[in-house]
Amino acid sequence: MTTSADTQRSLECVRRFQEGEKAAFDELVRMHQRQAYGFVYSLIGNAEDAADILQEGFLRAYEGLERFRGESGFKTWFYRILINLTRDALRRRGRSRRLFSYSLDEEDENGIAKSVPDMTLRPDMMAQEREYEDILSRALCELPDRQREAFSLRYFQGLKAEEVARILGCRTPTAKVHIFRAVRHIGRIMEPYIRGRS
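and the corresponding structure tokens:
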């Protein structure tokens, strides 16, 4: 979740970068790579593809940051880059992908979050969790791009509808409609499974 302090810190890094302090970009990477990786991963469902898209996204951000004018926050601007790259990647490979929520409990050697099963669960409980992830993944795959992106930004990234709208480049009521339709679709698919668990 982005706070106003995070937003100000990012804009300060952008200002320093634009004034010639190129190392300020490294700070932007450290601030945003973990959440940004999680966001891309929730859209594309493949760790290697997500890492590649994130790397390309940061490269494009580095190349375009001189032209950044601050009409929106850095995160909003950067996530638009990531969304466009992810859409291009999905178009290239088709829509077959596995999506599921990611865990931020453990990181790889680059500080990137990776999904880690909870080993305290009994084997039957782990099987149920995998089944739950598969059903959620299938439900997310069936969503149109805008609904999937809005759902991921709202629930995986914890952003408010206003910020979702800024990132998607639409009005807040439109973003709320995308979120509502995504939740309704996922709820319909997940309901029988949730009823069966209770």
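(Above: one complete record from the training split.) Helices lie at 4-18, 24-44, 47-64, 74-93, 123-141, 145-156, 161-168, 172-197.
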